[in-house]
From TrEMBL, chain A:
Tetramer of two alpha and two beta chains. The alpha subunit is responsible for the aldol cleavage of indoleglycerol phosphate to indole and glyceraldehyde 3-phosphate. HAMAP family: Trp_synth_alpha. Belongs to the TrpA family. Keywords: Amino-acid biosynthesis, Aromatic amino acid biosynthesis, Lyase, Tryptophan biosynthesis. NCBIfam families: trpA. CDD domains: Tryptophan_synthase_alpha (cd04724). It is an enzyme of class 4 (lyase). Pathway: Amino-acid biosynthesis; L-tryptophan biosynthesis; L-tryptophan from chorismate: step 5/5. This is Tryptophan synthase alpha chain. Pfam families: Trp_syntA (PF00290). The keyword Lyase applies. Its EC number is 4.2.1.20. The lineage of its organism: Bacteria, Pseudomonadati, Bacteroidota, Sphingobacteriia, Sphingobacteriales.
Length: 255, 393
């Protein structure tokens, strides 16, 4: 069974961490994955960097730029992930923009993901119609989940369509915003989260964008199967001893 | 209609709407409404009234006598430089501001390279009393200071884009981020035939006034509405698409698009997209763009800020791939020399962007009596500093 599905069957209040591959140093990709699993992360989203990340805020853009400047490529990332499954057992997704995937080759990308033991992908600028027509068969053949995003502005009909196309979880954006904005759970956000909860979707949901501390994490968990932390984590590992930074950061959530 | 957009938002292999979900409702709202709004009789009336009384259209189609003598053909200049604000950009901003009003938007954002689109956007926002925020690369803010001052005077807020190459591409990224963060009340006026569907089609429709007028003017002046050649410069490609639009299906009219070679196509400092680029996705559409084998966008270079962009619009990619258009390039130096030549032969100081199109005349061979139209997309006032430095004036 796909590790993502298994995780959602077995656990609640899932904590998923996003980080940029090859940041702060090119060789850190696997080290961070191992340290995160050790400190209690339930799932990982490894970002493959892109030069023009329009859905991201300044923190993730800067980490992407640094990683690229230091020589990171999708090809190198797959080499780094070759022995991923020798030490990391939790589900791993790759997250990034569509153009590097296109240049790598969609078929080759899916094959490489399956080979190294990646369980799913999040490609925010890959439209649903394109996915359905050109990518879905390939993703399914390689047992990869493809995760779509929804925002407070996503219409209900479209949410159901996304639910039908997804086979991992749905990424619930807390607001329409680039990454790194703070989560302010006001009445409208609560109403939106409740609305989604009451749709009884077949897929589990994870709340992302703006989760930065235990309080916002717990709040998110009351509406969804868990939450995703990105910007706050990328900030926390910018300098200092990597293992220590990861462990200190995770203690805030895992008490 | 062979070269126009299909119902899925594609031109052959190019186009589509590669956007994150956060932009979907805005882009979808536009997609569902743009043709309905544009085709409405009241909209058309208001649009054309403003183009006539405010922009000063129709712009002249001028038979340039001394150019014609020099090159041995009838060289016509389509004088978009005479539009209010000094370039073709205002055709699109007038159209989009009226459309934004119909959609009930209260706030306008735009990206700008040379500043021409920023000025054209700030101008229509002043005219219609709408809040205006313009994103502009830090490098461009330096090299286009007069346009920055104009935008501020017109009441726009100019926000510097300080990521990447700090030019047009990065300004576009920042504008898209703004739109993601302001999903309800804001309309993004994209200045070129780039971006997710329906932008390339919408901008082309607003700019198509250029070729619509040219056809009528040619018929009056030459007895035929079919020239032998039509030339225009291409960054993202909006003046070229406006100039080509009504000639695309006239297969005997040769369409020549002139890209910026920068310091030379192989110099590593170039913006010649069709020569250096490969198919991929940038700023919401599948097109041709300059990129590394890993799919990272390459920083372009051109002396002309308006052509300093690593991609071309999807419709251009389609015209290029099908061979309907011929895509060529001109270096920084060739364009500056052509700008001086135009000034001295015709008494017209062209924008360096437009000077790229003029420079290609030098490389062509004409038969006597052939009719050639060059889109003089903008005037050169904004480029005086560059001309002064290059020619030691």
């Amino acid at each position: 069974m796909n590790r993502i599905k298994q995780l959602f069957q077995e656990k609640k209040n899932i904590l998923s961490i996003y980080y940029t591959a090859g940041y702060p140093n090119t060789g850190d990709t696997i080290k961070i994955a191992e340290a995160l699993e050790k400190s209690g992360a339930d799932m990982l989203e490894i970002g493959f960097p892109y030069s023009d990340p329009v859905a991201d805020g300044p923190v993730i853009q800067a980490s992407s730029k640094q990683s690229l400047d230091q020589g990171m490529t999708l090809k190198l990332l797959f080499e780094q992930l070759k022995d991923l499954r020798k030490t990391v057992t939790i589900p791993v997704l790759l997250m990034g923009y569509v153009n590097p995937v296109l240049q790598f080759g969609v078929e080759k990308f899916c094959e490489a993901c399956a080979e190294v033991g990646v369980d799913g992908c999040i490609v925010p600028d890959l439209p649903m119609v394109e996915y359905e027509e050109f990518y879905k068969d390939c993703f399914e053949k390689h047992n990869l989940s493809n995760v779509f995003l929804i925002t407070p502005q996503t219409a209900e009909e479209r949410i159901h369509k996304i639910d039908g196309l997804t086979n991992g979880f749905i990424y619930l954006l807390s607001s329409s915003a680039t990454t790194g904005k703070n989560l302010e759970v006001g009445n409208t956000t609560e109403a939106y989260f409740s609305r989604i909860k009451n749709l009884n979707l077949k897929n589990p949901t994870m709340i992302g964008f703006g989760i930065s501390d235990k309080q916002t994490f717990d709040k998110a968990c009351s509406y969804a199967n868990g939450a995703i932390i990105g910007t706050a984590f990328v900030k926390a590992i910018a300098d200092g001893n990597l293992e220590e930074s990861v462990s200190t950061f995770m203690k805030k959530f895992k008490g | 209609m062979k070269y126009k957009v299909n119902e899925k938002g594609y031109y052959g292999d190019f186009g589509g709407a590669y956007i994150p979900e956060m932009l979907y409702p805005n882009v979808e709202e536009l997609r569902q409404n743009y043709l309905k709004i544009i085709d409405d009789a009241d909209f058309q009336k208001e649009f054309h009234q403003l183009l006539k009384d405010y922009v000063g259209r129709p712009s002249p189609l001028y038979l340039a006598k001394r150019y014609s003598e020099k090159y041995g053909a009838n060289i016509f200049l389509k004088r978009e430089d005479l539009n209010h604000t000094g370039a073709h950009k205002i055709n699109n901003t007038i159209g989009q501001i009226l459309l934004a009003e119909k959609l009930g938007k209260k706030r306008i954002i735009a990206e700008t390279g040379a500043g021409q689109h920023g000025v054209a956007t700030a101008t229509v926002c002043a005219l219609r009393n709408l809040e205006c925020v313009i994103y502009m690369g830090e490098v461009d803010i330096e090299r286009q200071a007069p346009n920055v001052a104009r935008m501020k005077m017109l009441g726009a807020k100019v926000v510097p884009a300080s990521s990447g190459s700090k030019t047009l591409k990065d300004a576009t990224n920042e504008a898209m981020r703004d739109w993601i963060n302001n999903p309800v009340d804001t309309h993004y006026i994209i200045g070129s035939v780039v971006g997710p569907h329906p932008y390339p089609d919408m901008v082309a429709i607003f700019q198509s006034i250029i070729s619509e007028e040219t056809k009528k003017q040619l018929l009056e002046q030459t007895g035929s509405d079919q020239p032998d050649y039509v030339l225009a410069c291409v960054g993202g490609g909006s003046n070229a698409m406006g100039m080509f639009y009504h000639f695309m299906d006239d297969e005997n009219v040769k369409l020549i698009a002139v890209e910026a070679a920068g310091k030379g196509v192989s110099s590593g400092f170039s913006a010649a997209t069709t020569y250096l680029g490969k198919e991929g996705v940038l700023h919401g559409s599948r097109s041709i763009l300059m990129q590394t084998p890993d799919g990272q966008v390459v920083e372009p270079h051109s002396v002309s800020a308006g052509l300093d962009y690593p991609g071309i619009g999807p419709q251009h990619a389609h015209l290029f791939k099908t061979g309907r258009g011929q895509y060529v390039s001109i270096t920084d130096e060739e364009s500056l020399e052509a700008g001086l030549l135009c000034t001295q032969l015709e008494g017209i100081i062209p924008a360096i962007e437009s000077a790229h199109a003029l420079a290609y005349l030098e490389k062509m061979e004409f038969k006597a009596g052939e009719n050639v139209v060059v889109c003089l997309s903008g005037r050169g006032d904004k480029d005086l500093d560059t001309y002064i430095k290059y020619f030691n004036l």
